[in-house]
Structure formats: C-alpha cells, structure tokens
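sry for the spam today, last one i promise. struct tokens for design, 403 residues
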C-alpha cells in the first residue's frame, strides 16, 4: 500500500461508469447538481473520454451540449488540440485528474468522474505498478521469433517466472506470450504484478455507480443516436474536419483520428465523386458507424465485468427512460447522500466485488515416464491410458523382474 494514503484520510470521489449510450453523462450531471450535501459545496465533472478530451468533432464524439451541462463545470472536455500531434494517454489522464481532484477537494467540491474510457478510470483508481506500458501492451510478437513452438515459449516462461507458468497450460500461447512480454518490457514477473494488483487498494474513497441498460434497448438506442447525429449535421462537421486535416497525414491509430466514425466516412470526401457515389458511401459509413459503436459497447461491458472483480459497484438500470426519476435518480441521490455523510450505504443496488477464481492448471508428474509433466486432470487420465505410458510401465516391470 502507499504510505501516504494510510495516514491521510482518502479523498471521496464519485465515479459513474457504463457503456456508451447508457446515460452516464445525464446521471453524472444530475448528481453533481444535487449538491450541496454535508460539507461539500458543489460538484464538478471530470470527463473520462479519450476522444472528447480533444477539441472539435463535437457531434461525432457525442460531447454534452451546453444545455445538457446544466451549468455544471466540466473538466478535460475539448481541452487538447488534436492537430498538435500530442497524444493523450491514460498516464496523462491520471496526472491531470489527480491534480484536479486534490484542488477540488481543498475547495470542498466533489469530483464526479464520468465517462466510458474505462482503462483511464482504472489507472486513476489504482497505483498501477506497470504504468502505461502493460495496460495496453500492443499484441505484438515482440518475443524473438526463434521460440516458434508454444512448448519452447512455455519452457522459457517456466525458467523466468515459474509461478506464472504453473498456472498456465503450454497451449495458452497468448497468455504465455503476454507474460514473457511483460517480463521483457518491465523486467518484472507477471505473477508478482498480479499479486500486487490484488493487494493494491483504491487510491480514493470511491463510490462507483454503474449505469446499465439491457443489450437490446442499448443497441436500438445507439442506432437511433447515429441517425440523430446525421440530423444534427455530422456530415458537415466531418467535411470541415477532413478539410482542416488535409495537410497532415491522417493516422487513424492516433489521437482524435481514432474516434469511431472518423475512418468510416473517409470515402465520402474523395474529390469529384458523383452524387450517387456520395450517398452510397454515406449509407455504408452510417452502417459501419452503427456496427462499430455496438461493438465498442460490448468491449466496455467486458471491462465493467473486470473492474467488478476489483471493487464493488452500484448498478442502476436506465433501460426505461420513463422510470429515470423514480428508479435511477432518486435512489442514486440517496446513495450519494449516505456516502457523503459517512453513513451506511443502502445496498439495494449493490453488486459485491467477485474475487476472480483464476483457472489454474494442476500439474501432474508421471514418475513412470521419467518425470513427464502433464497439465490438468483430463490430460492426466488420458496419459494413464496412453500407449507411451503403458510402454514405460511394461519396461519398468521387465526391468524389475530382471533385477
């Protein structure tokens, strides 16, 4: 644990997470607006969105409008110039947010962290020993290609990080490679890092609110949102953006160019195309934007499952907008009030953290077959019935009778 946090009381923050289109921003703003409570004078929002942090493309990145903000101050929203080539990262986000949080806390303002770039949220909540590098390690084959077979890589992991190897099956090549990659990049054992992350508690006294909708409702809502973006003038916004970025090479793996929708409409802005081609490309772009937005929501969902293994969440269902006041806002306000007054939290929306049972492969050593190592009980059963095992058994018997 970090020595500082043990002596000093942790700063209280509220974190609102959820998939894109689930209504996080609305709830975050409404909660911030329900202050003052206890000794907190007001609430301000820190936006956690790796694309909304850039200036421009307001419709595409779905930034909250001034009207929707209801006068609540927002931070890290449209603050970075996308064309200055400076990259925003989870490390930079953590730095800026930590400064904002302590400054707000000193003025008795409650930090409300709202957004969907979940690995940023995680880097803010935990002291990650591995920094930026591991959170989003590129899935590159950076281990020398000499180790072509899974077995060789596994043997190498067994040498370097036996504890990690003992939990993996040699055929889990990606996992074996990742553990080797971590060793190579950070010089530290993956097994130690996992242990530290388990021991690693949250930096803040955080109330984590998860805004959720059932999948079908969410997908329909996301499709509708894309149609609304078009009505609000998305194509003009993109056309202007493409003109501004004509002079620079557009790298869709960097900065604001990674926004879902940036690449999808690229063909619409090829010079001198016929009206019919333009409308075909637009239609393809819209379909593709819908598809990719739905896929993104699915990835976010997986991440929420993962964070739920580290910390308890309070889940609110926003599937039915008619019930928002009654079923979401009221109980969430009650929860916030109890949290800020240091009272016992009502647990009707609580989802306890589920400690993850990692599937571990039990290792069997066969003495008969000169100490051959076998992974897992089903492989062990198969091994005992195998020709090779029986062959060694026979050989042993004949050796014994000859002795």
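last one done:
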């Amino acid at each position: 644990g970090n020595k500082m946090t043990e002596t000093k009381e942790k700063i209280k923050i509220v974190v609102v997470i959820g998939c894109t289109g689930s209504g996080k921003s609305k709830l975050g703003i409404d909660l911030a607006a329900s202050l003052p409570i206890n000794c907190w004078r007001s609430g301000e929002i820190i936006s956690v969105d790796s694309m909304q942090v850039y200036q421009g493309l307001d419709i595409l990145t779905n930034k909250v409008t001034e009207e929707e903000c209801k006068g609540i101050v927002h931070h890290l929203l449209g603050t970075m110039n996308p064309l200055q080539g400076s990259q925003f990262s989870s490390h930079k986000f953590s730095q800026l947010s930590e400064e904002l949080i302590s400054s707000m806390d000193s003025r008795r303002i409650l930090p409300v962290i709202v957004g969907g770039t979940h690995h940023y949220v995680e880097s803010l909540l935990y002291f990650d020993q591995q920094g930026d590098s591991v959170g989003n390690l590129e899935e590159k084959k950076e281990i020398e290609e000499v180790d072509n077979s899974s077995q060789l890589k596994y043997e190498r992991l067994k040498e370097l990080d036996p504890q990690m190897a003992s939990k993996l099956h040699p055929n889990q090549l990606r996992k074996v490679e990742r553990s080797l990659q971590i060793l190579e990049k950070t010089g530290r054992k993956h097994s130690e890092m996992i242990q530290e992350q388990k021991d690693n508690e949250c930096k803040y006294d955080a109330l984590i609110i998860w805004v959720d909708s059932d999948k079908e409702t969410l997908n329909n809502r996301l499709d509708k949102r894309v149609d609304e973006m078009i009505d609000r003038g998305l194509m003009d916004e993109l056309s202007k953006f493409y003109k501004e970025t004509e002079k620079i090479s557009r790298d869709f793996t960097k900065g604001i160019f990674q926004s879902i929708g940036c690449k999808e409409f690229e063909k619409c802005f090829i010079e001198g195309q016929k009206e019919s081609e333009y409308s075909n490309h637009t239609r393809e772009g819209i379909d593709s934007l819908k598809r990719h937005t739905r896929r993104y929501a699915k990835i976010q969902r997986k991440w929420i499952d993962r964070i739920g293994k580290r910390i308890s969440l309070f889940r609110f269902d926003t599937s039915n907008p008619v019930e928002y006041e009654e079923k979401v806002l009221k109980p969430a306000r009650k929860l916030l009030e109890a949290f800020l007054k240091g009272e016992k939290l009502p647990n009707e929306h609580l989802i306890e953290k589920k400690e993850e049972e990692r599937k571990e492969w039990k290792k069997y050593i066969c003495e008969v077959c000169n100490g051959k190592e076998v992974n897992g009980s089903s492989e062990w059963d198969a091994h005992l019935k195998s020709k090779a095992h029986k062959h060694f058994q026979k050989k042993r018997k004949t050796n014994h009778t000859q002795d």
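The CA atoms of residues 147 and 153 lie 6 Å apart. ok im logging off now
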